[in-house]
UniProtKB/TrEMBL annotation:
<protein>
    <submittedName>
        <fullName>FYVE, RhoGEF and PH domain-containing protein 4a isoform 1</fullName>
    </submittedName>
</protein>
<feature type="domain" description="PH">
    <location>
        <begin position="385"/>
        <end position="484"/>
    </location>
</feature>
<dbReference type="InterPro" id="IPR000306">
    <property type="entry name" value="Znf_FYVE"/>
</dbReference>
<dbReference type="Pfam" id="PF00621">
    <property type="entry name" value="RhoGEF"/>
</dbReference>
<feature type="domain" description="PH">
    <location>
        <begin position="607"/>
        <end position="704"/>
    </location>
</feature>
<dbReference type="InterPro" id="IPR011993">
    <property type="entry name" value="PH-like_dom_sf"/>
</dbReference>
<keyword id="KW-0206">Cytoskeleton</keyword>
<dbReference type="InterPro" id="IPR051092">
    <property type="entry name" value="FYVE_RhoGEF_PH"/>
</dbReference>
<dbReference type="InterPro" id="IPR013083">
    <property type="entry name" value="Znf_RING/FYVE/PHD"/>
</dbReference>
<dbReference type="Pfam" id="PF00169">
    <property type="entry name" value="PH"/>
</dbReference>
<feature type="compositionally biased region" description="Polar residues">
    <location>
        <begin position="713"/>
        <end position="728"/>
    </location>
</feature>
<dbReference type="GO" id="GO:0008270">
    <property type="term" value="F:zinc ion binding"/>
</dbReference>
<keyword id="KW-0597">Phosphoprotein</keyword>
<dbReference type="InterPro" id="IPR037742">
    <property type="entry name" value="FDG4_N_PH"/>
</dbReference>
<dbReference type="GO" id="GO:0005856">
    <property type="term" value="C:cytoskeleton"/>
</dbReference>
<keyword id="KW-0862">Zinc</keyword>
<keyword id="KW-0966">Cell projection</keyword>
Amino acid sequence: MQEGGLDGAIGKGRVSNLISRFEENRHTDGRREGTPPKQVSRSPNCSPPRKNYQRPREQTSDSSPHHALKPPNGVLAKMNRDRDKERDMEGVTHAPVPIARINKQGLLNGDSVDLTNREITEEECVDSPDVHLNQAKEEEEQEKRKVSEQSDIVRMNSIPEQKETNEQKLYKIANELLQTEKAYVARLNLLDKVFYTKLMEEARKDTFPVDVVKSIFSNITSINAFHSQFLLPDLEKRMGEWTSTPRIGDILQKLTPFLKMYAEYVRNFDHAMDLLKQWIDRSPPFKAIILDIQSQEVCGNLTLQHHMLEPVQRVPRYEMLLKDYLKKLPPEHMDRRDAEKSLEIIGMAATHSNTAIRKTENLKKLLEIYEMLGEEEDIVNPSNELIKEGHILKLAARNTSAMDRYLFLFNNMLLYCVPKFSLVGQKFTVRTRIGIEGMNVKETFNEDYPHTFQVSGKERTLELQASSKLDKESWIKAFTETIDISLQKNETFKSAIKDTEEASDLNISELGKRAPRWIRDNEVTMCMKCKEGFNAITRRRHHCRACGYVVCWKCSDYKATLEYDGNKISKVCKHCYFILTGRTDSDDREGKKKGILEIEAAQFCGSSIMCGFLQYCERNKPWQKVWCVIPEKEALVLYLYGAPQDVKAQSTIPLLGYHVEDNPKATDPPASFRLSQSKSIHSFAAESEELKQRWLKVIRMAVTGEVPESPEENSSAEITEELNSNGN
């Protein structure tokens, strides 16, 4: 019994091994031929099969019982795979599949097996599916799993997402308030601790007036202190204890009264923009400090003007967040009363800011266009409003070739521009500025170029081609509406002028004797004398104290005594000035201060620190002979005249801040020197080295802000002698 059991075990091991080899051969043949293995009948004429390899244990004797304990290589792995399959298919019933008892002598290397000659025994049937049956069932199971997964996805999508609770929404709003407050305080620090502080440090050196810097930044220091020392710390503390104290209304209700300080900043904003532009143009050191800070990473490639818009826009932001907070706040919530009081206070402060915001948003767009135009066009003022912009083709007048152009249509003018090559952003050069007043637009027809129309103004007529019919209609509509609005304003203005003039004619005898009724600022949009549009930067509104007209500063630059005001000298318009003083238009400017270039050169000869002829060259222009004067009254300015008796200077150079270079280039004339500042370079050459050193002594003091003294050599006799020699 023991030996029989051993033989049986060995026999079963061999059969399993043979089955494995048989399956491997089947798969190998299938891979070779790409089709299932065929049954091959051996011809008796065929040579006997050659055996390449036989396992030694196939000829084992009964004296090797250890084979019953250690199955052939590969059997354990197959048994494990079968066990895993049985576990996976647990509960699945199928018909028993018999295993064929194969004569091992018939299995030769590379031969097929004659399945019809197998002897099948019912006892050796096992519950293991055929390989192809397994593959089919596995594919079926995979399909079932895919369908199941898709069903799960559809079912999950059909389930609505879990909605945020009201408490979570309130927390998100409060957290947004905190995060935006942190970013806002960073901007305030940039304005207060960087821009304002550095400009004040330089102003205290008398480089430019301290009052100018203070006027530009208004009360920014107080605003920064309030937010960084009070509001932000309180919000951070409250968000840290939100779980126990979920409310922000009490903090805002306590601190929002301080937001009234924004009224001063908003009221001063237009004036601040005006001063900022003036001193950037006037003072090179002022401009250099601002440009240096703007180039730093902390500025984020934004200008000072952009950062100064932040305080104007902040208060309405509080109002918006608090309104959203109140919508989510239950009526019985403990924070509701404080939040409502806070909103009322913030709403009052926001009323002052909303109008300013509309102006600042328009101003922000104007600043962007100003940068696109190379900062050369003076378009940044609140009276300008952008209507439409975009690319368009311009048809040449001679050969009707189309050229790419860009238009900026404003409420009062059209900028006709040429695109410039630029690696960073769009850049344009203004070719023509056309006023809206007197402009006409009409549709044209051109067989070669469709979608054309014509814009005709006082300055120029343009034939333009749009990209499509809709684009053409859009441009024509924009031009037509802008022209119509301009005409309506002019008609209203003319009507107001007519009514006022009639009233003035009736009461001309009382001019200056009775206080007039002032025309309200919002009743006119342009000067009632010269008809130039008002803006907050270059043309502000002024009232004539005699007739009550609203005029610009140029038209109000007259003074006369008014009887009704105790004969005090008051500001009046040009028309009233002639009536009250009896002067005519020919001598209306007598006694008035002349422009900086209108001072006659002869006036300086006897009262100058230094004067004389020098050769002058600006950039790459040709050298020319000019009469240079540094007057005693304006010791920091160099006047350049064409001749000693000219009534108007060609140009002036404010010497403060310039760098003096006493190292002439090889191409410069002898005894030459240069004044340089940023991109501005002025070259001079004297008649002799001695005269050059006299000029340098005076200029070196002037560029540092010191008032120079007249050199002893610069006597009146020498000046007279020089004038005589040049005259000969």
